[in-house]
Amino acid sequence: MKILALVLFILMYIVMVARQKYRPHAAMAVAALYLVTGILPVGQVISSINWNVLMMISGTMILVDYFIASGMPLLMADLIMEKSKNVMWIIILMSLFAGLISAFIDNVATVLMVAPIGMAVCRKLKINPVPMIFSIAVSSNLQGAATLVGDTTSILLGSYANMDFLDFFFMQGRPGIFFAVELGALATIPIMRFEFRHLTQETLVTERTQVKSLWPSFLLLAMISLLIGASFIPGKPEISNGIICLGLAGLALLGDRVKTGEREGVRRALRSLDTETLFLLLGLFIVIAGVTQVGLIEDLTRLIAEVGGSHLFWLYSLVVWGSVLISAFVDNIPYVATMLPVLTGLATRLGISPYILYFGLLTGATLGGNLTPIGASANITAVGLLKKEGYETGFADFMKVGVPYTLAAVLAGYLYTWFVWAG
């Protein structure tokens, strides 16, 4: 049974890497095979699925759609452009702006919001948009791990480790992973200043974007506030965060229906749900429960412990830099979902707190995706947007931006997490 589970698991990963558009199909198919073959008893299916994660992601996606449609992100970008001295600073500030948004909104949605603004600036100034768009994508991917709701991997970690919104900022009396990510973002500024030092043209904003409605912005702020408030409630239900996100999404849908008297906005928001990611996660939860059930997670834990030894520094380094290399080519959602129980087992074997390994995993897996154009969905989206505008790009074009950004950001986060959490 263990051999069969391992073979199916490996086949699933091969399909995910070779045919990315079939990732949810592969996960759901293997999940079904696990149930049919008895690798995971059917009676354990419901308990193996992390409903809190699925609810949080669904609710956040709907709120993000309304936020984008309101025009508020465009107005914020206009204000940034007004404060910029030249094109170099526009690229830097637009990248940091994308990162700020991405700390609270899905990375792909962030790229879809900010990249067209960058494209318009480049078109107006008659400059190549490739470096700016790639910088926006890399920054969006970088900042996703900063908060509980910034990225699917953060939501996975938060739910798995029972971490609340505030735990990403301060936890157990120490600064959390938020500061590791922000240090990484700051480390990329000198890289951008050097990369774009020749872009000294001045720019002007002739007209600010008009915001259609403040309601979506209010709901997003309410979501953040309620998630923070819920973090202070002891013994709350496991799906509390999911209920908050879905409840506010319901208010957004209801408000739209009442205000317009039409269903088109509601249909658009519901169509914005990334069902591929939701089904991917659904299948992965079942598959991971299956490999845990037959003991594969325990075997992998033992193998990594033997390679990394009992020395925490080497083990931590292996987790961070190994995750960087793996996430450069493998989607970080299934990778993080698989590794979380492995790291828990490692921490138990070594008799240490698992959080330094959790944070190392998220640092390497999230930032490592920036090494290549296929390492993160935000990067793939950016490449697609450029292609639509007639700009064909390859691995080398992306890596000119991605490699220095990634090395600077990961190194900053790697050192920060070690010095703060190793003791």
TrEMBL record:
Instruction: Give the UniProt entry's GO cellular component terms.
Output: plasma membrane
Q: What Pfam family is a match for this entry? A: CitMHS
Q: Where is the Citrate transporter-like domain?
A: 14-362
Q: How does it sit in the membrane?
A: Multi-pass membrane protein
GO molecular function annotation: arsenite transmembrane transporter activity
Q: Where in the cell is it found?
A: Cell membrane
Which intervals of the chain form a coiled coil? Answer: none
Query: Which keywords annotate this record?
Result: Cell membrane, Membrane, Transmembrane, Transmembrane helix, Transport
Which InterPro entries does the protein's record reference?
Answer: Arsenical_pump_ArsB (IPR000802), Cit_transptr-like_dom (IPR004680), Diverse_Ion_Transporter (IPR051475)
Give the residue spans that cross the bilayer: 27-46, 53-76, 88-121, 133-157, 177-194, 214-233, 239-256, 277-297, 312-330, 398-421
Family label: Belongs to the CitM (TC 2.A.11) transporter family.
Report the PANTHER family cross-referenced here: P PROTEIN
Q: What is this protein called?
A: Citrate transporter
Q: Which species is the source of this protein?
A: Shuttleworthella satelles DSM 14600
